[in-house]
From TrEMBL:
It catalyses: meso-2,6-diaminopimelate + H(+) = L-lysine + CO2. Pyridoxal 5'-phosphate binds at residues 243, 278-281, 400. This is Diaminopimelate decarboxylase. Keywords: Amino-acid biosynthesis, Decarboxylase, Lyase, Lysine biosynthesis, Pyridoxal phosphate. The modification N6-(pyridoxal phosphate)lysine is found at residue 64. The gene is lysA. Its cofactor is pyridoxal 5'-phosphate. GO terms for molecular function: diaminopimelate decarboxylase activity; pyridoxal phosphate binding. It comes from the Bacteria. Substrate binds at residues 281, 317, 321, 373, 400. Homodimer.
């Protein structure tokens, strides 16, 4: 949440004014901070070092959160491994300089071609999610004359207390192998000639603000690991997944990495296995924002609409999960407002014709995009003093922002830039409209 600094001439990221970025690169534009990304990674490393896991923990950044080559390269240079879920992500990680031997491959549906590519690259481990996948992987590894390193991803049937769409550890989810079926499947895996049992994996969901469910899941995971050791199927690593949440709004603080990990690490401290972590959102979420410009103000009897040039195709979290992202003005003299007090004012006047807040010049706005969907909103009831042409920053947009962007309404995807001290680098140029239909063709004439 605290990515920007407010100066008299507007908001900055590190040494660069957001207004300058808008002038140079246009809007909508994703803006990341190299320092914030590096600090998030160090947060994990330091917490692990402090708990004595320095030499036996592998941080595998979950690429799905933000697959930018520049970000992958930055984490690779810091020593990170990667959690991938497709052949595409494998190719990206390798192109960005990631090391194959630090990659874990998650996901409920891996194609044979993806298995082959990962085996050829020599990844650290496949996180296998079904009996059928185990059989297929054994066959593919056999065809290649090799042995696939595997973990089973278990489903502990623990409620992670997060949004149902990003909850993965309850038994009605498509993810993982039921705890009571896992032991037998491990025995089967150990009997297959082209599999090497390495570890166990568990990921119960995303945006978790309380570590208790993950710690509860860990008890079940460790009980199974001990049972396997007795059955002569020793494990060399324990993958605790990702899931740590971040602060999106002032009244919902997130724990520090150290506090979040403490109850989980406590259960692992007197064990010998390597620890694998798969954090995504907590490494990138608060290191990026989406810069957008107000195109049209459309005050109305019921609601005031501020139509901006970013939309649900750029950031779909609000439309998909009703997710909250703080939105602030970035121009000269605009200090980020305290959202909580503003929201109360918005609600207090809601329904009144003027929709005016107590603050001078501020009104309540629905911040919406130009896409033809009523669900195309980026923020509800925001108290802001707006004029057409104003720049806004949609905060905490570094995770699952650009990664889930689409070309809906034939909208080119946004540019992405990375601030590094007093430099700013274009890390992905804005798409051009002609590129959006370059792969298509019309039917032959006649
Ligand atoms: C298997 C797996 N690992 C890691 C992650 C990363 O999760 P997060 O971004 O919440 O840290 C996810 C996404 O939830 C996932 O499905
Ligand atoms: N896309 C989700 C997170 C998904 C996690 C994937 N396992 C979000 O934006 O919050």
């Amino acid at each position: 949440m605290h990515l920007t600094t407010s100066y008299p001439d507007g908001l900055y990221i590190e040494g660069i004014a957001l207004t300058d970025i808008a002038t140079r690169f246009g809007t909508p534009c994703y803006v990341y901070s190299r320092a914030a990304l590096a600090a998030a990674y160090s947060g994990y490393r330091n917490a692990l070092d402090a708990q004595g896991f320095g030499n036996r923990a592998l941080i595998c950044y979950a690429v799905k959160a933000n697959a930018s080559l520049a970000i992958l390269n930055l984490f690779a240079n810091l020593g990170a491994g990667f959690d991938i879920v497709s052949g595409g992500e494998l190719a990206r990680v390798l192109a960005a300089g990631g090391k194959a031997e630090k990659i874990v491959f998650s996901g409920v549906g891996k194609s044979r071609a993806e298995m082959r590519a990962a085996l050829a690259a020599g990844i650290h481990c496949f996180n296998v999610e079904s009996a059928s996948e185990l059989t297929q992987l054994n066959a593919v590894a056999g065809e290649l004359g090799t042995c696939a390193p595997i973990s089973l991803r278990v489903n502990p049937n623990v409620d992670p207390k997060t949004h149902p769409y990003i909850s993965t550890g309850l038994k009605d989810a498509k993810f993982g192998i039921a705890m009571d079926a896992a032991f037998a499947l491990y025995q089967h895996a150990a009997s297959l000639p082209h599999l090497a049992v390495k570890g166990i994996d568990c990921h119960i969901g995303s945006q978790l603000l309380d570590p208790a469910p993950a710690a509860e899941a860990m008890d079940k995971v460790l009980a199974l690991a001990d049972q396997l050791a007795v059955a002569h199927i020793p494990l060399t690593h324990i993958d605790v997944g990702g899931g740590m949440g971040i602060q999106y709004q002032p009244d919902k603080p997130a724990p520090t990495v150290a506090d979040y990990l403490a109850p989980i690490l406590a259960k692992l401290s007197d064990r010998h296995e390597q620890l694998v972590l798969e954090p995504g959102r907590s490494l990138v979420g608060n290191a990026g924002l989406l810069l957008t410009q107000v195109m049209v103000l459309k005050p109305g009897e019921e609601k005031n609409f501020a139509i901006v040039d970013a939309a649900m195709n750029d950031l779909m979290r609000p439309a998909l999960y009703d997710a909250f992202h703080e939105i602030v003005k970035v121009g000269a003299g605009d200090t980020p407002q305290s959202f909580e007090s503003d929201r109360r004012e918005c609600r207090a006047v809601s329904g009144k014709p003027s929709w005016r807040t107590a603050k001078h010049d501020e009104q309540c706005w629905e911040i919406v995009g130009p896409v033809c969907e009523s669900g195309d909103f980026l923020g509800h009831d925001r108290a802001l003093a707006l004029a057409e042409g104003d720049l806004l920053a949609i905060l905490s947009a570094g995770a699952y922002g650009m990664a889930m962007a689409s070309n809906y309404n034939t909208r080119p995807r946004a540019a992405e830039v990375m601030v590094d001290g007093d430099q700013v680098h274009l890390i992905r140029r804005r798409e051009e409209v002609a590129e959006l239909f370059a792969l298509e063709s019309v039917l032959p004439a006649g």
